Amino acid sequence: MKELQLKYGCNPNQKPSRIYMKEGELPIQVLMGKPGYINFLDALNGWQLVRELKKATGLPAATSFKHVSPAGAAIGLPLSETLARIYWVDDCGELSPLACAYARARGADRMSSFGDFIALSDICDKDTAMLIKREVSDGVIAPGYEPEALEILGQKKNGNYNVIQIDENYVPAPVEHKEVFGITFEQGRQELPINDELLANIVTKNKDIPADALRDMKIALITLKYTQSNSVCFVKDGQAIGIGAGQQSRVHCTRLAGQKADNWLLRQCPKVMDLPFIDGIRRADRDNAIDVYIGEECMDVLADGAWQKVFKTRPEVFTREEKRAWLDQMDGVTLGSDAFFPFSDNIERAHKSGVKYIAQPGGSVRDDLVIECCDKYGMAMAFTGIRLFHH
Hints:
By secondary structure, this protein is an alpha/beta fold. It has helices at about 35-55, 80-85, 95-105, 110-115, 125-135, 145-155, 210-225, 250-265, 270-275, 285-295, 300, 320-325, 345-350, 365-375, and strands at about 5, 20, 30, 60-65, 70-75, 115-120, 135-140, 160-165, 175-180, 185-190, 230-235, 240-245, 335, 355-360, 380-385. It contains 14 helices and 15 strands.
């Protein structure tokens, strides 16, 4: 198959629409559904991300994509009891490594992952398919599917759930093209390997980066390679916990990613985990309620007439002081940035979310001030010398 006609482009009025190969065959098969233009953008970017995570870490990887940026990305490390609870998979028993990867990728930022497109590094197994079946999602791409997994996925959307299989041996041409306003752009593909050598230039007084932090640096940078710029990524224990994408200001990327990382930790507080939800509440309504409850507009869900729709009894307010005390426990977080930090305000904000390790290109005229700020907090920072913009 050299081409595939699509229903429409980014928007319904953008017709005609198709994907095609100028030379050779398309490296994908649509096993179910009818993916659209944005679905394929998410699928192909997501596949590159998980393929690279698997290569860098040796573990199965998954990502949850929305609007051509990852909402979450993770490798298949086992889930703690707490993480299983906040990801709503504690009723699933022991999960496969690939299912753990998807639970982490989907669970880190459930608000952003609603209606996601999933990419899996390995053949989709039954456990992973069962998790996907429970969530509101547009589709999945993987190098293959176990027969039982396909049967499970076929039950979503009355058999119209988008399931794509990609040839894992496909290698694209080294030069890529993109057309904007009738003008063709050409560039070499971003094939930069994210490895130990890239992270060897540690510029802070603290030069101790343990193996798990080095792994998390790679996860952060690989995630950023496929995130719309400007972008910043917070990683903890093998998964992205906060991604700030597409912001014009670097510090706004850091604030956005940091707030998402904070929300991830706040959801692990017993006060949040024990919220008394009404029986039969829908998963999306529960996620929305948690997001509001831990935010600054908590009265939107705690006011009389509002809380009764969500909770059996009215929860106490999660005060700013309580939240700060809980967040102050966070430590050992890794931060990656796709371009240099121009001011130390980014480091100050990162510190509030427990960042201990940083990977960024360096090259700002204020590098000395950024390094000085890292030294103030005992952080270890590596300069990669390489920018990772993605558009």
